[in-house]
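In this supplementary section we document a worked example of the pipeline. Step one takes a protein sequence of length 389 as its only input; no multiple sequence alignment statistics are reported here. Step two produces a three-dimensional model, which step three serialises into structure tokens for compact storage. The input and output of this example are shown verbatim.
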Amino acid sequence: MDEEEKDRLQDAISQYNQDIQMPPYDTDSRRSDTREYEEYVEDEESSRKQTSYEKLCLKSASMLPVAADDSTRDRLSGPLKLLDWDITPGMVVSGATAVGAGLFVAWALLFAANFALGNLVPVSIMAIFVLVPFVAGIYTYLKPVYDAKEKVVESSQEMILSILYMVIYMESSPNLEGAVRFAALNLEGPIAKDLKGVLWNVEVRNFDTVEESLAHYSQKWKDYNDDYLESLQLIQTAVQEPNPERRDQLLDDAIDRILEGTEERMNSYAKGLKTPVAILNAFGALLPILGMIMLPLVSSFIDAIGVPHLFTIFNIMLPAALYWFMRQILSSRPPTVSVSASDTETMPSRGRFTVSVLGMEMQVPSWVPGSRRVSLGVGLRLLGLRCFP
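The serialised model returned by step three reads:
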């Protein structure tokens, strides 16, 4: 880091130091009507609007209250706390039951209507779609788990950067509140929002100290990233350390802990990708090819297999299964630091690419070349049928 960068960093830290109060914190004398607090309250109110999933669970619980067992509470309590959803595991069970039962009734009505109309849709196809209510109910039950994993993935980069920002601040001024504020104001995303919540919980006197508020916040991540929690604990320990050399060592250990833990998790994840990728290749590429070869041969002996069955299997069931499997693989990705593009002004918009026509650059939608290839293929096919009937 050169002198110019050091000066710029020091100026930024000095700016945040102006309104930092050293412990012990006098929460009674601190007013919460500042512009920053009003902005935080507005963001909090907008973000706390009930999602459609919460409304579904609340409505289902009012009509069909179900008590969750111990295993369900253990499985869903952590994700619900991490997501800050104002529902209980029992409400989730009620929502899953209502979705499954409602779709099953809808399937039964469609089955009866199809039978009354003379089986416009083959009975075997209708029998396959009986799986939809059960799959939808299971997905509704597991949605908090999936969404919590998505939040962990979205927050992965900010976890490491938040520790880095806190350590940078602590090396200049050993104040935990200032370190948390410095990290919150320099980040954007779920972690930044959570750290702002840590500060404002002290401002509104939900907790007496930042240490208590940060400890309460850490409980949300105890089942998802131990390295992040250990780094936070090392930073809190460094605040109480009077020896500067020992304090610097603790701060270095905080960075090393999360970086080494991230490296270990990523190495383990990369090594474990071999089998899932092989399965994905087998079911996503080889199985459709072999199926399209074998099923016409099988259909010549078994009349029950027709075009509707092939369409249902290869266009609905197989893509849905592969999509779920890919999400499972990606949701287990450990936290990493991604590299952001430094210059995106020269890049075309998402879904487009730049072409040069007569010296003029134009952005063309990406589907245009694909449609041209499809049209060319269809044209050649029709030409072949015309020439060689």
